[in-house]
Design goal:
The structure is a single chain. This protein is mostly helical and 111 residues long. It has one domain. Helix content is 50%, strand content 4%. It is built from 3 helices and 2 strands.
């Protein structure tokens, strides 16, 4: 199974073909990730790819919370909507967690 998903070595055919390159946002003819096509081929384990994107988002989100907007090209150009939606989701989840934690502490204080 791992071989079918490219987890042990990259596949010749892509598992996924992204509409926009995560490195250049589809704006660089010299990009090593999309080779100038604007579309990125994912030929290895999707979990590893998603972990990389998640890590990049968490870094950008951390800067965003400190008042700095991310400035690398994919966020500025093609992926503004992706970043905004991800930030809104993250902020919503944190607010829900903080709400639940405050209620838990109130219940604990009453007992």
């Amino acid at each position: 199974m791992k071989e079918q998903w490219g987890c042990t070595k990259p596949l010749e055919r892509p598992l996924v073909l992204l509409d926009s390159c995560t490195v250049c946002g589809g704006n660089s003819p010299e990009c090593s990730a999309c080779k100038g096509t604007g579309r990125e081929r994912i030929c290895s384990c999707p979990v590893l790819f998603l972990m990389k994107l998640g890590h990049e988002f968490l870094g950008a989100w951390s800067l965003f919370r400190k008042g700095f907007l991310p400035s690398y090209p994919p966020v500025i150009d093609e992926q503004n909507n992706w970043f905004i939606e991800a930030v809104l989701l993250m902020e919503s989840e944190i607010a829900q967690y903080e709400n639940e934690e405050a209620k838990r502490l109130q219940r604990k204080a009453k007992s």
